[in-house]
């Protein structure tokens, strides 16, 4: 039986020399690989008490939506600034080269609601750290953060210390 990592395509020297790009398109284009990925992420939530799942644009949507469906939970979109039609709250955060801003509908998280955040990849942890700030600003409680893949060499866990973080696959490098 194949493992999720068997479906991940590794592309050396992309986007620059010395980097190995971990491509999820080969996971999601294969029915068995996609089901396996969602099922493995679902297993990371065994025993976790939560109310709703949130995912950051755009690859958090890819795994968060089917996971929410499978677990009979709602799904909250965390989007780039200017993409949501109703009243929002936003947070700006630093990227490797520059900054970005994400937002969430003001009414998407209720005070005290227990939230799981889902994304495809943890690198430096910046996007998820900003997502946590958004959820907490609305009174939500982040009870777990899960990823399909983690690049341990970029030390994203350090940035998310104090939160329950889990990944299906961990790559030691960057």
UniProtKB/TrEMBL annotation:
It comes from Brotonthovivens ammoniilytica. It is found in: Cytoplasm. Residues 49-164 form the Phosphoribosyltransferase domain. The gene is apt. The keyword Transferase applies. This is Adenine phosphoribosyltransferase. Its main location: cytoplasm. Keywords: Cytoplasm, Glycosyltransferase, Purine salvage, Transferase. GO terms for molecular function: adenine phosphoribosyltransferase activity. The lineage of its organism: Bacteria, Bacillati, Bacillota, Clostridia, Lachnospirales. InterPro entries: Ade_phspho_trans, PRTase-like, PRTase_dom, UPRTase/APRTase. Catalyzes a salvage reaction resulting in the formation of AMP, that is energically less costly than de novo synthesis. Belongs to the purine/pyrimidine phosphoribosyltransferase family. Homodimer. It catalyses: AMP + diphosphate = 5-phospho-alpha-D-ribose 1-diphosphate + adenine. Pathway: Purine metabolism; AMP biosynthesis via salvage pathway; AMP from adenine: step 1/1. Its EC number is 2.4.2.7.
């Amino acid at each position: 039986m194949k493992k999720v990592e068997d479906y991940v395509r590794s592309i050396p020297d992309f986007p620059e020399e010395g980097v190995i790009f971990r491509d999820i398109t080969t996971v999601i284009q294969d029915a068995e690989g996609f089901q396996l990925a969602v099922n493995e992420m679902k297993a990371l939530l065994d025993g976790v008490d939560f109310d709703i799942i949130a995912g950051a644009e755009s690859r958090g949507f890819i795994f968060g939506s089917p996971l929410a469906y499978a677990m009979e939970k709602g799904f909250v979109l965390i989007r780039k600034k200017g993409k949501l039609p109703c009243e929002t709250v936003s947070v700006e955060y630093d990227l490797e080269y520059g900054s970005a801003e994400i937002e969430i509908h003001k009414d998407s998280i209720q005070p005290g609601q227990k939230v799981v955040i889902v994304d495809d990849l943890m690198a430096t942890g910046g996007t998820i750290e900003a997502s946590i700030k958004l959820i907490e600003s609305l009174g939500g409680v982040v009870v777990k953060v899960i990823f399909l893949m983690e690049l341990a060499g970029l030390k994203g866990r350090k940035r998310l210390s104090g939160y329950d973080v889990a990944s299906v696959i961990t790559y030691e490098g960057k």
